[in-house]
Write a structure and sequence with these properties.
Number of strands: 40
CATH topology of the largest domain: UDP N-Acetylglucosamine Acyltransferase, domain 1
Distance between the termini: 103 Å
CATH superfamily of the largest domain: Hexapeptide repeat proteins
Helix content: 10-25%
Strand order of the largest sheet: 8-11-14-17-20-25-28-31-34-37-39-40
Strand content: 25-35%
Structural class: alpha/beta
Largest sheet: 12 strands, mixed
Length: 348
């Protein structure tokens, strides 16, 4: 597929600087791009490569106004790159049908143009939407629903009575609807509290490989529309994650925690249970969230505190060796002042 730079600029709502008729047939990294391809610069530290790349055109920020090759100027060059990459990389969907090596319950309701690979299991009374793709090893428990155009990659496990919306992507090894971690002490023994709730995943959610989302004890664990979750994340029972939130790898979210809309959680952050996080909150990597966090702020540290306050603490922390040296010097001088003069002691 070939597109002119002008057509690509229209596609991403950008502006052409230079020759707009140059033909683009693909996308490549700035160091590897060849004539006929487009590349991008989102980080200013790579500006030196602008004159070195062999690409026919470069996606740049609006700050860059001239170069020795055509430019596609954008307010968000990385977003423009993503949209153009999608244009060149996505292939038209082709339905595969149901492989003979799959098991499909006779009570399941199947949509049009689905693709069901070998070793897939679809349980009783399931509902599978149009153009759904289920790769090898996918297990869909009874009474579960999967919306149209969703993709479940190999070895995804969907426990019974789970609801998955439209255009959802679940990567390999994802487990949806396993039991929440609920136990009550009976003396020294642990009594398992039945987990009879469900999981609801709304439209346009993407979940990374080997992430787990537990079913609710009662009610629902909910991932709202547009949530994006990285690999190796644990979402516990009765958690609610708001629209368009992002959760990065190795995060652990304890039971009944509520995340607002457009929340960003850095890698390896952890949450205690039953806390509420406001809208538009950013939580730094490895933070420990132990209490409610107000909306529209950034937080870092363990326990998580406002980011500016955390940075002040870090600056003080780096000065601790000098502060210790100063305090030791002051302590030594005070002791010298407080000690009786040796000559005075002799006179007495």
């Amino acid at each position: 597929m070939k597109k002119s730079l002008k057509e690509l600029a229209e596609w991403v709502d950008g502006t052409v600087i230079g020759e707009g008729d140059v033909e683009i047939s693909g996308v490549a990294p700035i160091e590897e791009a060849e004539p006929g391809e487009i590349t991008f610069i989102a980080n200013p530290k790579y500006l030196s490569k602008l004159s070195e790349t062999r690409a026919s055109a470069v996606i740049v920020s609006k700050d860059i106004r001239q170069a020795d090759k055509p430019l596609l100027s954008s307010g968000n060059p990385y977003l423009a790159f993503g949209k153009i990459l999608s244009l060149y990389s996505q292939k038209p969907y082709q339905a595969r049908g149901i492989d003979s090596g799959a098991f499909v319950s006779p009570t399941a309701r199947l949509g049009k143009d689905i693709s069901v690979f070998p070793s897939v299991y679809i349980g009783d009374r399931c509902s599978i939407g149009d153009r759904v793709t289920l790769y090898p090893g996918v297990c869909v428990g009874e009474e579960s629903t999967i919306g149209e155009d969703s993709i479940l990659h190999p070895n995804v496990s969907v426990y019974p009575r789970t609801t998955i919306g439209k255009r959802v992507i679940l990567h390999a090894g994802v487990v949806i609807g396993s039991d929440g971690f609920g136990y009550a002490k009976d003396g020294k023994k642990n009594f398992k509290v039945p987990q009879i709730g469900t999981v609801e995943i709304e439209d346009d959610v993407e979940i990374g490989a080997n992430t787990t989302v537990d079913r609710a004890t009662l009610g629902k664990t909910i991932l709202r529309r547009g949530v994006k979750i990285d690999n190796l994340v644990q979402v516990a029972h009765n958690v609610v994650i708001g629209d368009d939130s992002i959760v990065v790898a190795q995060v652990g979210i304890s039971g009944s925690t509520k995340l607002g809309s457009n929340v960003t959680v850095g890698g390896q952050a952890g949450f205690v249970g039953h806390v509420s996080i406001g809208d538009n909150v950013m939580i730094g990597a490895q933070s420990g969230v132990m209490n409610d966090l107000a909306s529209n702020q950034a937080y870092t540290g363990s326990p998580a505190i406002p980011h500016r306050e955390f940075m002040r603490i870090v600056v003080s922390y780096l000065k601790l060796p000098d502060m210790k040296k100063l305090l030791s010097d002051i302590d030594r001088r005070l002791k010298k002042i407080e000690q009786p003069d040796a000559s005075e002691n002799k006179e007495k």
